[in-house]
Amino acid sequence: MTEHTLVGWDGSAAARRAAEWATHRALATGEPITLIQVVAPGPAGADDVTLIRAVESAEDEAISIRQRYPVLDVRSEVLVGEPLADLRACSDEHRLLVVGTDELGTTSRTSGWSLGSRLAASCSGPVAVIPQVAAGERHGVVLGIENREEDGPAIELAAREAIAREEPLHVVHAWHQPTAAGARGLNPEFIAWLGDAHTTALSEAVERIERDFPEVSLQQHLSEGWPADALHAFAGSATALVVGTRGRGAVLRFFLGSTSHQLLLTIDAPTIVVPRRPVSTPDDEAAR
Q1: pLDDT digits (tens, 9 = 90+) for 242-278
Q2: Domain range for residue 87?
Q3: Are 265 and 112 in contact (CB under 8 A)?
Q4: How far is CA 222 from CA 56, 76, 234, 266, in A?
Q5: CA–CA distance, 81 with 228 (Å, rounded to integer)
Q6: Radius of gyration over alpha carbons of the chain, in Å?
Q7: What is the pTM of this model?
Q8: Count of alpha carbons within 13 angstroms of residue 68, beta-carbon side
């Protein structure tokens, strides 16, 4: 579980959705909230009027949240700089950065990078992207896993999220058959072996969660198909969807990975993207 929630604020409807989601989450987790507005400087720097309006906007929202929920610790902060760079600089493993998006999930959208996508691809800590979602009650935390070692940070965050909210944790692992090789296709025995391997991977991940977080109410789901499609199916009414991504690195920090990127392109649930833990290889060890 993170220790502090940061909300990217600019007074827009998307930012208000992000603040509302973060507020309801904080009621469960007890985390303090800081609304952060980044004002881009003009040719001669940020003018006083723009800064004053930004300070008033962020503080007015903080006051509104405190008045509605006196138990919460809510503050505001205004920075002068570039939103992507400054919000990214605020990120670390102990702080959840929450941003809104005006995108509404659609399977026809196949390209484009929102601020949330760019932050999720480059931040050193978890990033929650909050979309427009259909009205109605949302319940349960969905966790998508691929590699149980690399996904450790996402597993821990999702489990603690479910415990704090007192909601079930749905662990989803999806796989699909490789493209058929030749006219005769793939050997059925190989397909069966592959399915068994994925079943084992899910079972081992679930056993680890049950061992480390015995208080969590857990359900496991193995799906044959593309991971993003499977996660969309389970997360349609979820409080949060949690997935791992490759995390920061000299090159990899600008690439989310196909599953997490596709989820954010067709986002239809509050989605938390968590940098994965790198797994050392024998070559890595030899290079040290």
Answers
A1: 998 865 443 333 344 556 556 666 678 899 999 876 5
A2: 1-100
A3: yes
A4: 49, 42, 11, 21
A5: 34
A6: 20
A7: 0.85
A8: 13
270 neighbors 24 (Cβ within 8 angstroms): no
Do residues 239 and 138 make contact, with C-beta atoms less than 8 angstroms apart?
Answer: yes
**pLDDT reported for residue 45:** 55
Same domain? 150 vs 281: yes
Identify any residues that bridge with 273 across adjacent strands, giving them in sequence order. Answer: 127, 243
* Whole-angstrom distance, CA of residue 139 vs CA of residue 237: 6
Coil, strand or helix at 38: strand
Q: How many domains does the chain fold into?
A: 2
- Do 148 and 93 share a domain, yes or no? no
CB 239 within 8 A of CB 192: no
Residue 151 and residue 96 share a domain: no
What is 184-202 written as a DSSP string? T---HHHHHHHHHHHHHHH
d(CA 211, CA 30): 25
